Amino acid sequence: MAKNETVPLSADTLKADADALAALDVMLGYSPANADYTLNKINATSTALKAAADAFAQTEAAWQTARDAHVAAQWVFHNAILGAKQQVVAQYGDDSNEAQAVGLTKKSERAKPANNKKAAPATK
Known about the structure:
Elements: H1 11-26, H2 39-92, H3 97-101
Helix pairs in contact: 1-2
């Protein structure tokens, strides 16, 4: 049978399997020697596959909803911190130790603009 049953099957393979099941459904006299492959048992596996696919889709949708809620909560928290930093600057000033304590750079410690004069070309 399959070599690696931990890898999901491709959509093409599943479509071909569904087509084969449809052909078996209308096949007259299908009576396999191995009872594991009777039409009733194969239909049961098809039903189990559909149930598993439905459960997976529902779980995935729930995961995506939880992820969206998590991302939204991250942004609410981040925006609250940004607002708090602005309030620290408004209350204590942009050169205060308090501003530095919340992760901002003091105004007096910011890098001074560099003088962007072009260097004279080297002469020989």
